[in-house]
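ok so I'm stuck.
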Amino acid sequence: MEMMMAEPSQRYLKSELVNNARQRTWLAFRGSELVGSITIIGRGREFELRGFYVHKKLQNRGLGKRMLKLALRFAAGRPVFLMTYSHNKRSIRIYRKWGFKTDRKRGVTYTHWDAWPKWARAKSMHLRLSDYNK
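replied:
not stuck anymore, here's the structure
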């Protein structure tokens, strides 16, 4: 079965795979299967964490924490923020366990991706990690 991906989704995924002085992406594979990813992007004096994914079969085994540590090391102690969907309670609990707190400056927003129908929006919240001890 061949899967076709919409052009906006392809552009987004390509933009996440850039590695340079301000942006880095790590991909985790088990054999040839992609089982995890994380991207961190410099945004002025802080960094944005994006595209954080761990395959369901490998969750709760430390893979996500190892990838997060790589991203935070790249951020070199500067503040890190992320956006997650408000209904994603499990991820929010994990981020809080790792020291992320609600980012009151950014607050709650509604996200819309180009690949979605025009009427679709998802409630999102922002979390921030200001203090990170390696």
